[in-house]
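Hi support team,

I submitted a single chain yesterday and got back a structure, but I'm not sure I'm reading the C-alpha cell output correctly. Could someone confirm the output below corresponds to the sequence I sent? I've pasted both exactly as they appear in my results page.

Thanks,
R.
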Amino acid sequence: MYGTEQIISGTIIAGPELDPIEGYICVKNGIITEVGEERTYSANIIAPCFVNAHTHLGDSVCKDPPLGNASGFRVQRDLDSLVKPPDGLKHRILRETSYKILIEYIRKSLLDMIETGTCAFADFREGGVVGVAALNKALEGLELHSLVFGRPTEPELPLGVVLAEVRRVLLHSDGLGISGANDLDMELLQEITACTRNIKKLFAIHAGEKNRSDIEKALSLEPDLLIHLTQATKKDLDEVAQTEIPVVVCPRSNFVTGAGMAPIAEMLEAGIRVAAGTDNVMLNSVNMFAEMEFMSKVFSIEDRQVFKICTLNGSFVMGPGSTGSIEKGNKANLMILNGSSNNLAGIKDPISGITKRARPDDILAVLHS
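Hi R., thanks for writing in. Yes, this is the structure output for that exact sequence:
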C-alpha cells in the first residue's frame, strides 16, 4: 500500500549475487528502503520476481495443439509447421481469431504470469498494429512491466508499403521482433532495422533455432536482443559475446519442438548475458517455476546461476523499471514463498530448493512496483 511502510521478515535472497540472509525488508511507496539482518524465526523466503524474457502471448488462444503423426506433423514435431509465418499452425489460428477473443485470452496469460511470480515480460507480437493493440489493451490495469515487439503482417508487399506499416507498429510498441533472418529478404531486413533505429526503438530477432544458417545474418543487423541460439557453435557464441548482445533461451519450448537444447553453459562461459523465456503459450504455460526447474535438472548449471537467469538477468534485458536485486533503493518486485509448505519444508539451501522444486502454490504473496 502506497504511503504505508511494510516490513517483511524471513530468509531474503538478497543483492546481485543472490546471497540468502535472515532478516527483514522495509518497503515504502514500492521502493525497498532497508534490508536488515536479524534472526526472525520466520519461514518466509523472499525472492526477486521472475522476468519472462520471451513470450508469444497471442498463442494463448490455442493451448493444446495436436502433435505427432495424427496431426500431420512429422514425428520430430516440425517447427515450421507449428510457428513459421505466414502459414504455420499458430498463424492460421491467429488469422481466424477475433480481436475480442485475442484480448481475452492474452489477458488470461498475463494474469497467470502475475499469479506465478512474474513481474515483467517481453513479447513478440504477431499481427502488426492490431496484434500490438490487442496486447496493450489486455495489459490495461495490470501491474506488469512489458516490452512489446511488433512485426509487419505482409512483408512480401512492396517495400514502401511494408515500411509504412513498420512505422505504425513502432508508434505503439517498444520495437520490432522478427521471426528470423532466413524468413525475410535481407535487404528488407536492413531497411526495417534502419527504420527501427531512426525511431530509437529496439530490434530483436530469433536466430540459430533450427540450424545456425541465420546467425551471421542476424548479427549483421546489430540487434538489441537475440532469441534461442539453440544451434550456435563456440565460434558463434564468441562473436555474440564480443557484441555484448543478451540472449534469451527457451529450453522447454526447444525441447517440445525438437529444436535441441541451447548451449547455456557455453554461453555463460563465453561471457554472454543469458535470460530465459517460456516462448509460445501454445506449447508451454507462462509459469517460470517450470522453466527454472527444467533448466536446473537438464543443464549442468549451478542453481544460483539458473535462478539468476530467470530473474536478475531478465531485468537487464528488460531495462529500468522491470525488476532487480533485493537491495536498498531498488523497486520492490518480490515474491514471498512459504518455506514451511508441504513442498518446501525441510530444504536446507533456499536457492536450490526454489530452483529445483518450488511451485506457484508455494507463493504467499507477490509485490509489484
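A quick pointer for reading it: The radius of gyration is 20 Å. Let us know if anything else looks off.

Best,
Support desk
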